[in-house]
């Protein structure tokens, strides 16, 4: 062993020798010169110190080398590091000491960090350098790392501030803004950036900071976003500032941005952005052009532009359900004449056709089933609640078209059939969804039926009001709805719909009366209804929607929920947490929810066995059985909330999808039923091959509810995309499930969703380059998904009309360019896959795989558009939705200016 060690030592000693031989004459000369200077610095002659140190400094600074190797002077001086440190200790002249400390600081970069912790920073501070940038980028980067480490341990932080300021100044002047941001976030002094930001660098800094904010916790996240917003306002980037204000859901901040913006054309662009968010923004009375801006925010323009797009794409011709099913491609198995199990006019078959017809022709104001002259015939081909959904489908067909839709819907308000009348009331609400009208037809027509003797009419009126005024915070509508919650004649279904309607109207703002009314209803609910009622879970959801995106001020509500009996208490608290953190990507909350999903609550059979051993009475056993069922329902909500929280952030979404694979394999039955819905929520209207393949496997599951949810989820994932692969899968499923009416009904619904708006609409709750979450869209999706947690009793029962809550999420996936007079302006644009350019040097391309189109144009998930010509300037940084283009002045005019 000793001999072997000696041989290794000899090898190590011999290794540098060939390097000596390989060195050029120039390098040898440099090494000799540096060795001589070291001798002078470590020698006894004090007068030689300063000249020798200055010569050494100049040699180090002037050395040129490739970016991939260490400069030669640093290599040669590495062995003298200890000697120079000793020389520094002996020096008495302050100038010589500072020079020596400066050189040692640079040499410390090449030493092992474990042996010399933070010596680069230590000697830099001793050198009292004013300009650290003289030693180059690598030295500054080393200092930044050591400053960040030192900051956590040092007591007197003021000693580091001048050095930090010098480093930040160097970074900002040398296109290293990202490093500057990283350092200032580590030391929590982002304000230091403000005086160093100008027109050339503010956009890179703000873009980087706002994307970093997603990965930090409150309150740091809030302070970063607020800081970036103030920078945008300082540089008059009002559209970017408004995007942030919409992310924060701060109405007052949005008003302030409108107030500060002086350009009338940019104000109109801001109004179009607010209209996409479906916000009811009351501008100040002194606001210029208030009437014009309010008209834009009312969304009255959507219908006309949508019809123009449809004419441009030549898809105005109505589609029948049969054209969507394409049964002739399924073979003879599914043709009604050959399949006696599914009669031509079965109630379930007709109900499915009603929804498919509504989804496919949504927004086109034309169809071949219900809007035609003899549409009455189709109504009577359905039974009871089927009639309700059939009449309500008129609302989707005339979506956003208040003027054109009221007349055909109004005639059904005079029918003697309560179900059709109730459907017409719901249709009135759907038509007004997301659109504001000065006449307020929804309020005028629905108010008389809210407390009607007929429970059926109440359902249509109450839910219709909720959809018509979603997110508007209308006090008059809330005042109408609140008595329904406490009315003795209201059934559990009506109470649930009233709670949801109130929550939709006050979305994201905890209205004290609404919150207290829902809490009182929950606390007064009988135990039987709480445990076995199919509609009881909508009350906690309604409570959660009031706090959608709101984390502050929930303590009192949480305390009140603690008074509920156990199953409902856990369910309510999880619903509340799900809505509070929706879209935030908060990892800690996701972990909490996953912990709940992984727990095992005894099944009724297991309970029976344990109880029989202990000889307990039957009543106790029955009580436990119901408790078990509810606890598993709470787990299903926890699984769904993982997706709701993760959906706003790409990395989190991907991780959650992988975790759902495990939950789907090994989870509790209730959790497995929620998994397909959760997977769908993470890729709504984004039919990735891997996702639809996974859902296709679940659609053959032995558990009927898992299969139902998976089939419906396939529809959500492909919503509005006309995806050919998905359409083929669904046709195969229709063949596979031909004899199971429940499964076949779900397949038909999924087919209708896939062809939503003939492939022009999306259900995605994110817009503006996926930066902003649309609260009404999230609310509509959550109501639908929660109702699928009990698909057999709700969607396949009497409450299938809840599918119409998806109307809040429906919006054309388009880019429409307008001129300065808000008229459609066709221009050439390049459309391609969005490329992440955060922190990239220079001006990288923002899109890849480019196709050139003329506006209006459809955009898929993950696609981005940019102008193909230089004739116009867009007034918003994100080319999506309605974009106003400003004509560029001719070159001659620019030169004169």
TrEMBL record:
GO molecular function, one term: enzyme regulator activity
Boundaries of every 26S proteasome non-ATPase regulatory subunit RPN1 C-terminal domain copy: 838-889
Matches recorded under Pfam families: PC_rep (PF01851), RPN1_C (PF18051), RPN1_RPN2_N (PF17781)
Domain of life the protein comes from: Eukaryota
Residue spans crossing the bilayer: none
Biased composition (Basic and acidic residues): 1-17, 602-627
GO biological process, one term: regulation of protein catabolic process
Keywords: Proteasome, Repeat
Family annotation (Gene3D superfamilies): Leucine-rich Repeat Variant
Domain annotation RPN1 N-terminal: ranges: 34-330
GO cellular component, one term: proteasome storage granule
Keyword Zinc attributed: no
Coiled coil (residue ranges): none
SUPFAM superfamilies xref list: ARM repeat
Region (Disordered): 1-28, 601-627
Oligomeric form and interacting partners: Component of the 19S proteasome regulatory particle complex. The 26S proteasome consists of a 20S core particle (CP) and two 19S regulatory subunits (RP). The regulatory particle is made of a lid composed of 9 subunits, a base containing 6 ATPases and few additional components including PSMD2. Interacts with RPGRIP1L. Interacts with CRY1 in a KDM8-dependent manner.
Described function: Binds to the intracellular domain of tumor necrosis factor type 1 receptor. The binding domain of TRAP1 and TRAP2 resides outside the death domain of TNFR1. Component of the 26S proteasome, a multiprotein complex involved in the ATP-dependent degradation of ubiquitinated proteins. This complex plays a key role in the maintenance of protein homeostasis by removing misfolded or damaged proteins, which could impair cellular functions, and by removing proteins whose functions are no longer required. Therefore, the proteasome participates in numerous cellular processes, including cell cycle progression, apoptosis, or DNA damage repair.
Similarity field: Belongs to the proteasome subunit S2 family.
Protein name: 26S proteasome non-ATPase regulatory subunit 2
Protein species of origin: Apolygus lucorum
């Amino acid at each position: 062993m000793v001999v072997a060690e000696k041989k290794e030592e000899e090898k190590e000693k011999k290794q540098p020798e060939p390097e000596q031989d390989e060195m050029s004459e120039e390098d040898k000369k440099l090494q000799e010169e540096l060795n001589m200077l070291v001798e002078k610095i470590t020698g006894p002659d004090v007068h030689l110190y300063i000249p020798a140190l200055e010569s050494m400094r100049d040699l180090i600074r002037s050395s040129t080398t490739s970016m991939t190797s260490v400069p030669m002077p640093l290599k040669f001086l590495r062995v003298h590091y200890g000697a120079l440190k000793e020389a520094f200790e002996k020096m008495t002249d302050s100038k010589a000491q500072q020079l020596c400390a400066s050189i040692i600081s640079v040499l410390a970069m090449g030493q092992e960090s474990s042996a010399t912790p933070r010596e680069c920073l230590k000697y830099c501070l001793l050198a009292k350098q004013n300009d650290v940038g003289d030693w180059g980028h690598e030295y500054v980067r080393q200092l930044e790392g050591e400053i960040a480490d030192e900051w956590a341990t040092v007591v007197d932080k003021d000693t580091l501030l001048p050095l930090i300021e010098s480093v930040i100044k160097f970074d900002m002047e040398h296109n290293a803004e990202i490093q500057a941001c990283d350092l200032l976030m580590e030391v929590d002094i982002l304000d230091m950036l403000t005086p160093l930001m100008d027109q050339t660098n503010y956009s890179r800094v703000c873009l980087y900071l706002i994307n970093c904010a997603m990965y930090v916790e409150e309150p740091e996240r809030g302070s970063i976003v607020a800081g970036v917003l103030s920078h945008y306002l300082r540089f008059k980037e009002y559209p970017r500032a408004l995007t942030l204000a919409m992310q924060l859901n701060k109405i007052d901040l949005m008003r302030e941005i409108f107030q500060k913006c002086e350009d009338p054309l940019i104000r109109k662009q801001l109004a179009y952005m607010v209209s996409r968010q479906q916000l009811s923004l009351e501008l100040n009375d002194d606001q210029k052009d208030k009437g014009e801006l309010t008209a834009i925010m009312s969304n009255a323009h959507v219908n006309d532009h949508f019809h123009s797009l449809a004419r441009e794409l030549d898809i105005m011709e109505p589609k029948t359900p049969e054209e969507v099913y394409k049964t002739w491609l399924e073979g003879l198995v599914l043709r009604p004449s050959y399949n006696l199990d599914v009669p031509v006019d079965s109630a379930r078959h007709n109900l499915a056709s009603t929804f498919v017809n509504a989804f496919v022709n949504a927004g086109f104001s034309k169809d071949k089933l219900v809007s035609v002259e003899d549409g009455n015939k189709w109504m009577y081909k359905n039974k009871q609640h089927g009639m309700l959904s059939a009449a309500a489908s008129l609302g989707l067909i005339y979506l956003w078209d208040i003027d054109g839709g009221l007349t055909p819907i109004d005639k059904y308000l005079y029918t003697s059939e309560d179900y059709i009348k109730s459907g017409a009331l719901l249709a009135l609400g759907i038509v007004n969804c997301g659109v504001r009208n000065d006449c307020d037809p929804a309020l005028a027509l629905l108010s008389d039926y809210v407390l009607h003797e007929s429970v059926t009419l109440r359902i249509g009126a109450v839910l219709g009001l909720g959809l018509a005024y979603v997110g508007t915070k209308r006090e008059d509508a809330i005042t109408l709805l609140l008595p329904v919650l406490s009315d003795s004649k209201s059934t559990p279904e009506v109470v649930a719909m009233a709670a949801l309607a109130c929550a939709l109207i006050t979305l994201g703002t905890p209205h004290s009366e609404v919150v207290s009314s829902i809490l009182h209803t929950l606390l007064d609910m009988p135990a039987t209804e709480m445990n076995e009622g199919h509609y009881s879970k909508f009350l906690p959801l309604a409570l959660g929607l009031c706090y959608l995106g709101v984390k502050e001020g929930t303590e009192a509500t949480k305390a009140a929920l603690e008074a509920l009996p156990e199953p409902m208490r856990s369910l309510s608290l999880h619903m509340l947490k799900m809505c509070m953190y929706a879209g935030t990507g908060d990892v800690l909350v996701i972990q909490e929810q996953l912990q709940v999903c992984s727990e095992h609550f005894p099944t009724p059979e297991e309970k029976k066995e344990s109880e029989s051993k202990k000889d307990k009475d039957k009543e106790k056993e029955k009580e436990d059985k119901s408790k078990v069922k509810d606890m598993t329902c709470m787990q299903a909500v926890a699984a769904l909330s993982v997706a709701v929280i993760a959906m706003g952030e790409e990395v989190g979404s991907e991780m959650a999808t992988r975790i759902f694979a495990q939950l789907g394999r090994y989870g509790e039955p209730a959790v497995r039923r929620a998994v397909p819905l959760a997977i769908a929520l993470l890729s709504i209207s984004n039919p990735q091959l891997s996702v639809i393949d996974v859902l296709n496997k679940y659609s053959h599951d032995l558990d009927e509810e898992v299969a139902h949810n998976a089939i419906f989820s396939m529809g959500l994932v492909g919503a509005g995309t006309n995806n050919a692969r998905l359409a083929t899968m669904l046709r195969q499923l229709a063949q596979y499930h031909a004899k199971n009416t429940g499964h076949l009904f779900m397949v038909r619904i999924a087919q209708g969703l896939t062809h939503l708006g003939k492939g022009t609409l999306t259900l995605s709750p994110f817009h503006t380059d996926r930066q902003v979450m649309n609260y009404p869209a999230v609310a509509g999706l959550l109501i639908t998904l929660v109702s699928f947690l009990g698909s057999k009793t709700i969607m396949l029962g009497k409450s299938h009309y809840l599918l119409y809550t998806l109307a809040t999420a429906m919006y054309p996936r388009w880019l429409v360019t307008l001129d300065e007079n808000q008229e459609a302006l066709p221009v050439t644009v390049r459309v391609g896959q969005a490329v992440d350019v955060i922190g990239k040097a220079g001006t990288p391309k923002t899109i890849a795989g480019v196709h050139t189109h003329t506006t209006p144009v459809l955009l898929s998930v993950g696609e981005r558009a940019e102008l193909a010509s230089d004739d116009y300037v867009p007034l918003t940084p994100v080319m999506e939705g309605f974009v106003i283009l400003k004509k560029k002045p001719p070159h001659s005019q620019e030169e004169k200016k």
